[in-house]
């Protein structure tokens, strides 16, 4: 399995125009982050988790020319705002694309992108086949996917486990039964927003507590804000099997 980090930041992590903080002014490319997303290649198939506002550029930058399906974690715009740009893949592949998400996200997408779901959609609209999923295992394109139920403050969202890899973003709480689904991982990608505590995301300390509980072989932290600090300062402080993710990183398990 190949996992490519398309973006490791958040809306509070991408450079802010006029911001004079040391991260926004950093010349280190590790500190230049797009909105969080990953591209996964597995069993001859390729898919992304989340399509934020940077989706089009991420696809161009990674030279991605084919997508078999899409997984969405939740409805927030920094994770779905680029969904319209799957129309390029509709054109290339001459078919619609299955998009898997929880019921609330599917219903919200029908409102957000209503022009794509009308009985007679506007010509050129993205061709999206919404697939509402529950908190139970499902199979698509020969790939077995296990949703992980999370809370983003009070909003129920999904992370995903695929074989011995799991991707979790925007979590602020994970119940013990859901944490147990993450045991035995080779690779965990997990959100860690900043050093200070936050009301709706894990901070670094809380993310490390998750790692200590589930004990993956390797962990990369994502959805990083500029409040985390400089990559060169934070990375050396982490345990030997934990790292800050960065855009363009490619991992194999």
Shape: globular
Structural class by sheet pairing and helices: alpha/beta
Radius of gyration: 17 Å
Approximately what portion of the residues adopt beta-strand conformation? 25-35%
Mean pLDDT over the full residue set: 96
Give the N-to-C terminal Cα separation: 5 Å
Helix content: 10-25%
Number of β-strand runs: 14
SS field, number of helical segments: 7
- Give the biggest sheet: 7 strands, mixed
This entry's quaternary arrangement is single chain
Overall description:
With 253 residues, the chain is of the alpha/beta class. 19% of the residues lie in helices and 29% in strands. It is built from 7 helices and 14 strands. The strands form 2 sheets. A 7-stranded mixed beta sheet has the order 6-5-4-3-2-1-14. The mean pLDDT is 96.
Entry summary:
With 253 residues, this protein is an alpha/beta fold.
Features:
253 residues, alpha/beta, 7-stranded mixed sheet, 7 helices, globular
How would you summarize the topology of this molecule?
Elements: E1 2-7, E2 37-42, E3 45-49, H1 55-61, E4 69-71, H2 77-80, H3 87-93, E5 97-102, H4 103-112, E6 128-133, E7 138-140, E8 143-152, E9 155-162, E10 165-168, H5 176-180, E11 187-191, H6 204-214, E12 218-222, H7 231-234, E13 242-244, E14 250-252
Parallel strand pairs: 3-4, 4-5, 5-6, 10-11, 11-12, 12-13
Antiparallel strand pairs: 1-2, 1-14, 2-3, 7-8, 8-9, 9-10
């Amino acid at each position: 399995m190949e996992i490519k980090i398309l973006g490791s930041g958040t809306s509070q992590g991408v450079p802010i125009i006029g911001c004079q903080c040391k991260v926004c002014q950093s010349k280190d490319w590790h500190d230049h982050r797009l909105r969080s997303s990953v591209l996964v290649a597995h069993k001859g198939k390729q898919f992304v988790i989340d399509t934020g506002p940077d989706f089009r550029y991420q696809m161009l930058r990674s030279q991605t020319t084919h997508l078999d399906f899409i997984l969405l974690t939740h409805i927030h715009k920094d994770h779905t705002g680029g969904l319209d740009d799957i129309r390029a893949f509709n054109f290339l592949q001459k078919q619609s694309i299955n998009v898997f998400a929880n019921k609330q996200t599917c219903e919200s997408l029908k409102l957000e992108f209503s022009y794509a779901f009308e009985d007679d959609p506007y010509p050129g609209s993205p061709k999206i086949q919404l697939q509402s999923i529950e908190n139970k295992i499902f199979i698509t394109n020969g790939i077995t996917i296990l949703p992980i139920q999370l809370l983003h403050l009070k909003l129920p969202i999904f992370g995903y486990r695929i074989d011995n890899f799991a991707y979790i973003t925007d979590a602020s709480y994970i119940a013990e039964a859901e944490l147990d689904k993450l045991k035995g991982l080779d690779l965990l990608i997990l959100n860690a927003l900043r050093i200070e505590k936050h009301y709706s995301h894990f901070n670094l300390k809380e993310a490390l507590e998750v790692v200590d509980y589930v004990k993956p072989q390797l962990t990369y932290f994502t959805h990083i804000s500029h409040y985390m600090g400089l990559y060169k300062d934070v990375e050396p402080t982490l345990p030997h099997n934990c790292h800050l993710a960065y855009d363009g990183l490619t991992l194999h398990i």
